[in-house]
Amino acid sequence: MKLGLDVHIHGPVDRAAFVSFEGVQRTFARWFGFSRVRMTASSVTLDLSGDSRAQNASFGTFFSGGVDSFYTALENSTADTLILVQGFDIDLSDGRLWEETVVSSRRVAEKLDRRLIEVKTNVRDLAEWCSLDWGRVYHGAAIAFVAHMISGLHTVAIAGSYQESVRQAWGTHPELDSYWSTSALRFIHDGADVSRPQKVARISSDSVAMNTLRVCYQNPNGSYNCGQCEKCIRTVVNLAVVGALGRCATLPSELDYAEVSALNLARGGRIFAQENIAEMLRSRRIDIRLSQALGWALVRSYVRAVARRTPFVNP
């Protein structure tokens, strides 16, 4: 769609997938202005369900060790499979971080009595080649691709990034995720009914989550969590807001208000600040200094966006 090229598949295509693809096209055209393309196949079949209908077919959740995936894993007790991927947020060249993440994820799988499927893929390279934004556009499609390559799955829960009320155009979304389904495999969007602070409150009561949580996206020198990037600081804020500061062994145990006020919240940051302030008001656990720091971060981020003539939030 980004390149405006029609697609022809030499072989049979599942009818449900054919219909779902139209849903993907409508959504991406509305959100991002992508061109609709024509998709054809040698034949369209009613059912390519294969082994997904077997009695031992699995219910899987993708697992990165982060807040969203931990929440989805804990809340979906009927899921029996965790899927860990190198090549998404862990670079294929970062063997040190991958090995540490595998060890932690195996601990989680053992504690939750799930099997762990470990995957390596270079599918993200295609997004970079096509200049597609990984978060906003592509990562949901990449998740679906990997899931369809795994034999024996009948359902996959995709952890959501935002509450449904936010209506943020994003690669995983309540309007989008089910469109990756076929007659063989069903996708569901999970966690859209709760905010990020509420997810953190849920996982903060789980000891294995607090001992293995991984949220960092910079990972300098292969570090598990750097404790200083925007994602790490945001998660420490979440922990403080829900009264769990110091409980997570993989993140700083203290909140640096100066670091919070210096956050660049230009891309979706307004949602982060609003959710945490709303949670403080809801729980009556109000930290005045944190509220002020979040306010300053919003003001500074807005000024930066105006100076650079860039959108303060995603459309």
Count of discrete structural domains: 3
Name of the level-1 CATH class of the largest domain: Alpha Beta
Determine the CATH topology of the largest domain: Rossmann fold
Distance between the termini: 19 Å
Radius of gyration: 20 Å
Number of helices: 11
Structure description:
By secondary structure, this protein is α/β, with parallel strands linked by helices. The chain folds into 3 domains: 7-45, no CATH class; 57-190, Rossmann fold; 196-308, no CATH class. 43% of the residues lie in helices and 14% in strands. The chain has 11 helices and 7 strands. The chain has helices at residues 15-32, 67-75, 95-112, 124-129, 134-149, 196-203, 207-212, 230-241, 257-261, 269-283, 288-308; strands at residues 7-14, 39-45, 58-62, 81-86, 115-120, 153-159, 186-190. The chain has a 5-stranded parallel beta sheet, sandwiched between helices. Helix 2 links the parallel strand 3 and strand 4. Helix 8 (230-241) packs parallel to helix 10 (269-283). 35% of the residues are buried. The model has no long low-confidence stretch (mean pLDDT 92).
Task: Give a summary of the structure in a few sentences.
By secondary structure, this protein is α/β, with parallel strands linked by helices. It has helices spanning about 15-30, 65-75, 95-110, 125-130, 135-150, 195-205, 205-210, 230-240, 255-260, 270-285, 290-310; strands spanning about 5-15, 40-45, 60, 80-85, 115-120, 155-160, 185-190. The protein folds into 3 domains: about 5-45, no CATH class; about 55-190, Rossmann fold (3-Layer(aba) Sandwich); about 195-310, no CATH class.
